């Protein structure tokens, strides 16, 4: 009888153990199903996902806008620089394209390799004087060049003249027999702009030699009966100071 009881106890104990194992398995399955349902139905996670998606899209949009802004700042290749070049090419060709300024010759000497050329240092209202090579030896004595006030064309492309780079051109009234340097009005200072009432506007930074802008403007530059330098009859003017003149030459080309 005692043996029977022990066997019965063992059988019951085993059965209880098996039931515990089965119950634990069912609980695990229930927990997994519950977690899956929570993930699918959790409003917090759905909102979080929506927020993430909404925040990612502006980032792409911002990146695209940044790229667009960068392109605009460069002007399609180049913002201001390219736009300036394009606007210059579209402008009419007239005297407003020329950067004409008052200058002062502070040093002058004959070119060592050309008897007809002077090398001048001319103050033009900039950080340093410009080197200018002029074919004036036959027409203007050296002593009359020193400390002289002149009008200078400053936006021609620099060019070598007998080995010296010339950075501007001194404007003169000219005939085959006589050349006179144009004289700015009294009170002018280096850097003063020469302007034209009928042709306002800012000059090109540098005239494009391929466009032949100077060559198209030059034939219309002349002096008038009053000795004033003109473009198509419109006088060279230094604002609030007066007209630019030649000394004696009337109705002759200016170049």
From TrEMBL:
SUPFAM superfamilies: Nucleic acid-binding proteins (SSF50249). One of its GO terms (biological process) is translation. It comes from the Eukaryota. It holds the Pfam family tRNA_bind. Keywords: Cytoplasm, Protein biosynthesis, RNA-binding, tRNA-binding. Residues 32-42 have a biased composition (Polar residues). It is found in: Cytoplasm. Residues 94-195 form the TRNA-binding domain. Its main location: cytoplasm. CDD domains: tRNA_bind_EMAP-II_like. Coiled coil: none annotated. Residues 32-91 are annotated as: Disordered. Residues 51-72 have a biased composition (Basic and acidic residues). One of its GO terms (molecular function) is tRNA binding. GO terms for cellular component: cytoplasm. PANTHER family: AMINOACYL TRNA SYNTHASE COMPLEX-INTERACTING MULTIFUNCTIONAL PROTEIN 1, TRNA-AMINOACYLATION COFACTOR ARC1 FAMILY MEMBER. This is tRNA-binding domain-containing protein. It comes from Euroglyphus maynei (Mayne's house dust mite). The lineage of its organism: Eukaryota, Metazoa, Ecdysozoa, Arthropoda, Chelicerata.
């Amino acid at each position: 009888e005692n043996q029977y009881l022990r066997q019965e106890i063992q059988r019951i104990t085993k059965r209880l153990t098996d039931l515990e194992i089965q119950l634990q398995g069912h609980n695990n399955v229930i927990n997994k199903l519950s977690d899956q349902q929570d993930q699918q139905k959790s409003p917090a996670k759905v909102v979080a996902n929506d927020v993430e998606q909404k925040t990612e899209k502006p980032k792409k949009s911002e990146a695209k806008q940044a790229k667009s802004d960068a392109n605009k700042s460069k002007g399609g290749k180049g913002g201001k620089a390219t736009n300036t070049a394009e606007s210059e090419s579209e402008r009419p060709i007239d005297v407003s394209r020329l950067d004409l300024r008052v200058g002062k010759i502070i040093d002058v000497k004959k070119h060592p390799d050309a008897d007809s050329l002077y090398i001048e240092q001319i103050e033009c209202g900039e950080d340093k004087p410009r080197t200018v090579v002029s074919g004036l030896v036959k027409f203007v004595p050296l002593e009359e060049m020193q400390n002289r006030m002149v009008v200078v064309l400053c936006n021609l492309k620099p060019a070598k003249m007998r080995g010296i780079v010339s950075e501007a051109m001194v404007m003169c009234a000219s005939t085959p027999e006589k050349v006179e340097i144009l004289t700015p009005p009294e009170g002018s200072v280096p850097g003063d702009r020469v302007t034209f009432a009928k042709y306002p506007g800012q000059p090109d930074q540098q005239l494009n030699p391929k466009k032949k802008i100077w060559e198209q403007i030059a034939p219309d530059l002349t002096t008038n009966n009053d000795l004033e330098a003109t473009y198509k009859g419109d006088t060279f003017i230094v604002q609030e100071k007066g007209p630019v003149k030649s000394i004696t030459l009337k109705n002759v080309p200016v170049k």
